[in-house]
Amino acid sequence: MTLMYLFLVGAVLLFLAMIMFHAVANSLNHGPVLLGPRDTLDKPDTVLAGRAKRAAANMMENMVMFAPLVIVAVEASRATPIAEFGAGLFLAARIVYAPAYWFAIPLVRPAAWFTGVVGLLMIASQLLVFARGA
């Protein structure tokens, strides 16, 4: 397995952990009603459950960009050291992003988000550089 694919697997596992964190935070708030169809949620989400839900939704948005970039880079033999660094940077930034969002750590969440975008752009840049020469 390539390093790029390892970063992709790591991002998927992080996404799963974020979904699970939201599920636990939501369960603590709503209790056994979550075992059913959730038609009668008796109270709104807590602040933490709401943040966890939004963080997971943001991760989904980012995975939609990250996964195809990684797959194309690997399959097109464009997994350069810059692309690999970008993938690692993306994953590291997302690892920081989740708890920064959950616990409202000032300035860290937007900095982590921006760092993740830089990682995406690093991967994309390698695909575009090679595409011009082809």
- SSE-based structural type: mainly alpha
- Report the principal-axis shape: elongated
Q: Round the mean pLDDT to the nearest integer and report it.
A: 90
How much of the sequence lies in strands comes to: under 5%
Number of strands: 0
Uncertain residue ranges: none
Task: Summarize the helix and strand pattern as letters.
Answer: HHHH
Give the number of helices.
4
Major beta sheet summary:
none
| C-alpha end-to-end distance | 26 Å
> Rg, please?
17 Å
Q: Give the helix proportion (percent range).
A: over 70%
Describe the structure.
- This protein has 134 residues and is mainly alpha-helical.
- It is 78% helix and 0% strand.
- The chain contains four helices and no strands.
- The radius of gyration is 17 Å and the shape is elongated.
- The chain starts with a helix and ends with a helix.
- The model has no long low-confidence stretch (mean pLDDT 90).
Summary, kept brief:
It is built from 4 helices and no strands. It has about 130 residues and is mainly α.
Overview features:
134 residues, mainly alpha, 4 helices, 78% helix, 0% strand, elongated
What is the fold's blueprint, element by element?
Blueprint: H1 3-30, H2 47-75, H3 81-102, H4 108-133
Helix pairs in contact: 1-2, 1-3, 2-3, 2-4, 3-4
